[in-house]
Design brief:
The complex is a heterodimer of chains A (about 675) and B (about 240). Chain A is about 70% helix and about 0% strand. Chain A is mostly helical. Chain A starts with a helix and ends in an 11-residue tail after the last helix. The relative contact order of chain A is 0.03. By secondary structure, chain B is mainly alpha-helical. Chain B has two domains: about 1-40 and about 205-240, no CATH class; about 95-200, no CATH class. In chain B, about 65% of the residues lie in helices and about 5% in strands. Chain B is built from twelve helices and four strands, in the order H-E-H-H-H-H-H-H-H-H-H-H-H-E-E-E. Chain B is elongated, with a radius of gyration of 24 Å. Classes of the chains: A mainly alpha (about 675), B mainly alpha (about 240). Chains A and B meet through helix 3 and helix 6 of A and helix 6, helix 7, helix 8 and helix 9 of B.
Chain lengths: ~675, ~240
C-alpha cells in the first residue's frame, strides 16, 4: 500500500482543505499546493484542471480585504498572503495556461495591492508573482501614454525593494511597443532610472534593466541617439562592460541590447573590435547548457542578418564550425535547434564563402534531417536554412540538391499542417527547382508538380504565392515537355483565376509564371491562347488595373514574350493594349511608359519593339495604330532615359518607325 | 581583485630584471620586497568576510563584523536560512530542504529545472536508502518520470538512479556512488550556489581562487628565480630557496 504521506498530498484532497475555515489548515494546504507545483509542470496542470487557481485567488482576495478591513497585520493573514501569492506566481511561471488562469481568476489587481503592504515579505511575494506573470505574453499591457500609468511605473522603479523595481523593468519590456510609448518613457526620465539599476543594481535588476533598455531602443533611432548623445562614454560603456560580465545571462542580455542599438542606429558601434567581440561572446554563450545557450543563436542571428560585413567576421570567427558542431551533437533543446538552424540560414544568406564552409562540414545532411523533426518551428527553420544554402549557384548547377534526401521530405512538407512550414518549404524548393541540369524529373516523379498545383489553390495567400513562385522557377528555361506537364496540371482556368487573385502578391507570381511559361520557343507562346485565350485576357485585364508596379512589370514581360511570337500572337497583344479602343489617356501603356520604375518602362518599350519589328508583315499597321494612340511620341521622350535598357529599346522603336517613315504625332497644345 | 594584480605586477617586474639567468633571492631581500607591497587592511577584511558569508559561517561572520567593523555584502539572516537548507540536504531531509528553499524564494526551483531534478533525484535516493521500495517506485513514476520526458539527460540520470533498486546491496553496485555521502554534498552545494546566485551573490568565495592564483604565480616564477616559497598554504611560512 502506498504510504500515507503521498496519499494526503493528493490534489483533490488538498483542494478541499484549501476551503477550510480554519486559518491554520488553510495555510498549511496553501503551502503544500505551492511546494507541490514549484518546478513541476505536470502538477501545475493537474491542479489547474481541478480549479485550484480560482480557489487560491479567492483566498488571496479575502485575505487582502481582511488586511484593509480590520487594519491589523497579524501574522496569519500575512502568511496566507505570502503563500497564496507564491502559489499563484508559480502557476504563472513558464506556463501560459497558468498565467491565463491567474488572470481569469481576477488575481492581478490583488497582487498589485500587495505591493503597498507594510510587510516586506508580502511585498516580495506579490512582486515576484507579478514578475512571473510579466514573463508571459498574456500579461496585461500598461498604456504609458496615460499619466497615471506612468506615475505607477515611476513609483515602482523607484522602489528600494529589488523585486519591485525589477517588476517595473519587466512591465516596460512587456508593455512598450510603439515609438510614441518609447518616446514617452524617455521623456519621463525612465532611462536614467534604468541606467542606475544597470550600474548599481543587483544581478536581477541589471538583467531586467538591460531587457527594458533594449525594448525602449528598438527601432527608435531618436531615443538611441539621445541615450548615446553627449554622454557617449558612460551609459553605453556600462552596457558594453556588462557584455563581459561573469554571469552568462547578463552577457547575453547586454549583447542583445547592443545589437538592438546597432540595428536601430547602424552608424553606432561600428568599430571592428566591438563587432568581433559581440560575435565571440555569442558563440561562447552557445556552450551554455541552459536557456542562455538556447537564446544565443537567435541573438547571433539578429546580429548578422542582412549584414555581409558581420557574416564575414563571423565566418572568420569559425561561427559555422561552431554552429555545425552543436547541430551534430544531437539531442538539442527544440528552441536551441531552431536557433542554430536560423543562425546558419543567416550566415549562408549572402556569401558563397560561408556556403562553401557549410558544405565542407557536411552540414547539409543535418539540415535535411531537421526537415522531418517533430517541431514545426524546427521544420520551418530547416527550410529557411535550405533556402539560404541553395542560393549557391555552384552547387545548384551541380544538381547537388535535386536528390531524394532533400526533395522528398520537402515535397512532404507541402502537406504540413502548419502554414509557416508550407511557406518555408516552398521558399526552399523555389531555389532548388531553378536547376540547370536535366534532373528536374526527380521532382516530377515524386509528385511535386501535382502538390504545387494543389497548394496554388490553398486558402492561405502566402502559400498560393509561394507555390506559384516555385512553379515559376521550375519552368524557368525548362524544355517544352516539362512546361506542358506543368500546364496540363495547372489548367488555363486555374491560372487565369490566379492572375485575378484578390491578393497582389499572388497576382504578381501568377503573371511571372505566365512570363516564364511563354518564354522561349514559339510553341511555348501557345499556352496563353488555350481555352480561347483565357489567360491572355486575364493578363490584359490585370494590367488595366495593376495596383502595384511589380504586377505591371510581370504582366508586361508576359505580353512582351507573347509579342515575340508570330503575326497572330502580335495582333492578340495589340488587342490587349487597345481593348474596344478606350480613351488613349487611360491606356496603361502610356502610364507604364511614364512610370518611375525603370523595369516597368523597359518591359513596356520592349513590347513595342517586338510589335513593330520591321520583318513582320503587320508591323506598319501596328505602328500607325500605336502612333495614333500617342505611344510612339511617348517613347520618343525616352530616348534619353537615365536607364540604359530603356534608352536602347526606345532607340530601337525609333529605328522601326523611321524604317516605315512613320513620324510621331505632334502633341496638341491643351491649354 | 586588486591583490591578484599586485602579484602579477610583481611577477612582471621580476621577470624584466632577470631576462637570462635564474636569479636567487635571499630571505631578507624577499621579505623586503614583500613589505613594499601595500595591501589595505580593509581589503583583507573584505576577503575574509566574503569567505565567511559565502561558506555560511554566520556566527563567525557576526563576530568578525563586530571586531573588524567590516560590513557583510549580504543580510546575515539569509545565511542562516541558506545553511538550514544545506544542512537538511546533507542530512538527507530533502523534502524539508525543498520546502525551505521555496519559502526563501519560490523562483529558485521554478526557474532551475536541473537543480529541481537533482533534489528530486536525491529524494529518491534517500527513499531507496531507507528501503522504502514501493514508495520509491511510486515517487520515481509520479514525480521524476515527467521530468525525464521533458529532458533527455534527466531521463538518463533517472534510469541510473532507479537501477539502484535492482541490486541487493545498492551501495556496492555499479551505480553505488549515488548512495555515497558525497552525492548529498554535491546536491547540497548545488542548492547553496543557486540560493547565493538568487541573492545576487557570487557562488564561490574569492579566497580559494586567490590561493590558486598564488600557486600558479609561484609556479611561473619557479622557472625564472629561486626565492623563499610559500609551500604550506595554511601557515603561509616562507621556506628558504633550495640552491
Amino acid at each position: 500500500m502506498p504510504s500515507a504521506t503521498t496519499n494526503s498530498h493528493r490534489p483533490s484532497e488538498l483542494l478541499s482543505r484549501l476551503a477550510s475555515s480554519e486559518p491554520e489548515v488553510k495555510l498549511r494546504a496553501l503551502r503544500e499546493v505551492k511546494n507541490q507545483i514549484i518546478g513541476n509542470r505536470t502538477k501545475k496542470l493537474s491542479f489547474l484542471k481541478l480549479g485550484a487557481v480560482p480557489a487560491v485567488a479567492g483566498i488571496l482576495a479575502d485575505s487582502a480585504d481582511g488586511v484593509v478591513g480590520k487594519n491589523n497585520c497579524n501574522n496569519d493573514i500575512n502568511n496566507i498572503l505570502v503563500q497564496s501569492a507564491a502559489a499563484l506566481g508559480s502557476f504563472a511561471c513558464g506556463f501560459d495556461a497558468g498565467v491565463q488562469a491567474v488572470l481569469d481568476a481576477g488575481a492581478f489587481p490583488n497582487l498589485l495591492r500587495l505591493l503597498a503592504n507594510s510587510n516586506e515579505k508580502v511585498v516580495d511575494a506579490g512582486a515576484r508573482a507579478l514578475r512571473m506573470i510579466y514573463q508571459s505574453k498574456l500579461a496585461p499591457k500598461y498604456d504609458f501614454l496615460q499619466q497615471k500609468n506612468m506615475d505607477f511605473l515611476i513609483s515602482v522603479l523607484n522602489s528600494e525593494n529589488e523585486n519591485v523595481s525589477g517588476l517595473g523593468a519587466s512591465i516596460i519590456t512587456h508593455s512598450c511597443q510603439t515609438s510614441l510609448e518609447q518616446k514617452a518613457l524617455f521623456d519621463a526620465g525612465i532611462l536614467g532610472k534604468l541606467v542606475s539599476l544597470l550600474e548599481g543594481g543587483s544581478l536581477s535588476q541589471r538583467d531586467a534593466s538591460l531587457e527594458s533598455l533594449a525594448t525602449i531602443f528598438r527601432n527608435n533611432s531618436e531615443v538611441v541617439s539621445k541615450f548615446v548623445g553627449p554622454e557617449i562614454g558612460r551609459s553605453l560603456s556600462s552596457v558594453i562592460d556588462l557584455a563581459k560580465d561573469r554571469h552568462p545571462r547578463t552577457r547575453l542580455l547586454a549583447c542583445m541590447c547592443l545589437i538592438v542599438i546597432r540595428n536601430t542606429s547602424p552608424q553606432l558601434l561600428q568599430n571592428i573590435g566591438i563587432k568581433t567581440k559581440l560575435i565571440h561572446i555569442l558563440l561562447e554563450l552557445l556552450d551554455d547548457p541552459g536557456q542562455v545557450g538556447d537564446e544565443a543563436p537567435f541573438a547571433l542571428s539578429s546580429l548578422i542578418a542582412q549584414k555581409e560585413d558581420l557574416q564575414k567576421l563571423a565566418l572568420e570567427a569559425n561561427a559555422i564550425d561552431k554552429l555545425q558542431y552543436h547541430l551534430q551533437r544531437g539531442l538539442l533543446h527544440p528552441r536551441r535547434h531552431e536557433g542554430i538552424l536560423l543562425a546558419l540560414a543567416d550566415m549562408c544568406s549572402k556569401l558563397e564563402s560561408c556556403r562553401s564552409k557549410f558544405f565542407s562540414l557536411q552540414a547539409l545532411n543535418l539540415v535535411a534531417d531537421a526537415l522531418t523533426n517533430d517541431s514545426a518551428d524546427i521544420r520551418t527553420a530547416a527550410c529557411t536554412c535550405l533556402k539560404s544554402v541553395t542560393r549557391s549557384i555552384k552547387n545548384l548547377s551541380a544538381g547537388y540538391f535535386m536528390n531524394e534526401m532533400i526533395v522528398i521530405p520537402l515535397v512532404q512538407l507541402f502537406l504540413d499542417p502548419s502554414t509557416s512550414v508550407q511557406v518555408a518549404a516552398l521558399g526552399a524548393l523555389s531555389n532548388i527547382v531553378v536547376d540547370f541540369t536535366t534532373r528536374k524529373s526527380i521532382f516530377v516523379q515524386c509528385g511535386g508538380i501535382k502538390q504545387l498545383v494543389l497548394l496554388a489553390r490553398s486558402m492561405e495567400p502566402a502559400v498560393r504565392s509561394n507555390a506559384l513562385w516555385a512553379l515559376k522557377n521550375f519552368v524557368f528555361l525548362a524544355d517544352n515537355r516539362l512546361k506542358e506537364g506543368v500546364f496540363s496540371e495547372l489548367t488555363a482556368s486555374l491560372l487565369s483565376s490566379l492572375i485575378c487573385d484578390p491578393e497582389p502578391s499572388v497576382q504578381e507570381q501568377a503573371l511571372a509564371l505566365v512570363r516564364n511559361l511563354v518564354d522561349g520557343c514559339m510553341n511555348s507562346v501557345e499556352f496563353v491562347f488555350a481555352d480561347d485565350g483565357l489567360i491572355l485576357g486575364a493578363v490584359g485585364r490585370q494590367l488595366q488595373r495593376a495596383s502595384k508596379p511589380e504586377i505591371g512589370i510581370q504582366g508586361m514581360y508576359a505580353l512582351c514574350n507573347v509579342a515575340s511570337g508570330n503575326e497572330f500572337h502580335k495582333e492578340a497583344v495589340m488587342h490587349q493594349l487597345f481593348p474596344q479602343m478606350v480613351d488613349k489617356n487611360q491606356s496603361f501603356m502610356i502610364k507604364f511608359l511614364q512610370s518611375n520604375e525603370s523595369q516597368l518602362r523597359t518591359a513596356a518599350v520592349w513590347t513595342i519593339v517586338n510589335l513593330t519589328c520591321p520583318s513582320s508583315p503587320g508591323a506598319y499597321g501596328r505602328l500607325v495604330k500605336l502612333r495614333n494612340a500617342g505611344i510612339i511620341s511617348q517613347i520618343k521622350k525616352l530616348e534619353n532615359d537615365p536607364c540604359v535598357d530603356v534608352k536602347l529599346r526606345a532607340k530601337a522603336v525609333q529605328g522601326h518607325s523611321e524604317a516605315f517613315g512613320v513620324q510621331p504625332l505632334l502633341e496638341h497644345q491643351t491649354n | 581583485m586588486s591583490l591578484f594584480w599586485i602579484v602579477i605586477r610583481q611577477l612582471a617586474e621580476i621577470e624584466e630584471q632577470m631576462a637570462t639567468s635564474k636569479k636567487v633571492f635571499t630571505r631578507e631581500e624577499w621579505e623586503k620586497r614583500l613589505n613594499d607591497v601595500k595591501i589595505r587592511k580593509e581589503d583583507m577584511n573584505k576577503l575574509v568576510m566574503n569567505f565567511l558569508v559565502t561558506e555560511g559561517y554566520v556566527e563567525a561572520a557576526e563576530k568578525f563584523r563586530m571586531e573588524s567593523g567590516t560590513e557583510p555584502d549580504i543580510d546575515l539572516a539569509t545565511i542562516t536560512d541558506r545553511m538550514a537548507v544545506k544542512k537538511a540536504v546533507q542530512c538527507g531531509n530533502v523534502e524539508d530542504a525543498i520546502e525551505k528553499v521555496n519559502d526563501l524564494n519560490p523562483e529558485i526551483l521554478d526557474t532551475n529545472p536541473q537543480l529541481f531534478f537533482h533534489l528530486q533525484q536525491q529524494r529518491l535516493i534517500e527513499l531507496i536508502r531507507n528501503g522504502k521500495v514501493e514508495e520509491a517506485l511510486e515517487f520515481a513514476q509520479e514525480e521524476l518520470a515527467p521530468r525525464g520526458e521533458e529532458n533527455q539527460s534527466f531521463l538518463e540520470e533517472l534510469e541510473r538512479t532507479v537501477a539502484l533498486l535492482a541490486f541487493e546491496d545498492a551501495t556496492n553496485c555499479p551505480v553505488g556512488e549515488l548512495m555515497d555521502i558525497s552525492q548529498r554534498l554535491k546536491t547540497a552545494s548545488e542548492v547553496n550556489a543557486a540560493i547565493l546566485t538568487s541573492q545576487s551573490h557570487e557562488k564561490d568565495p574569492k579566497l580559494p581562487s586567490l590561493l590558486k592564483m598564488l600557486i600558479w604565480a609561484q609556479n611561473q616564477l619557479d622557472e625564472k628565480a629561486s626565492y623563499p616559497r610559500i609551500n604550506n598554504l595554511s601557515s603561509a611560512t616562507l621556506d628558504d630557496p633550495t640552491v
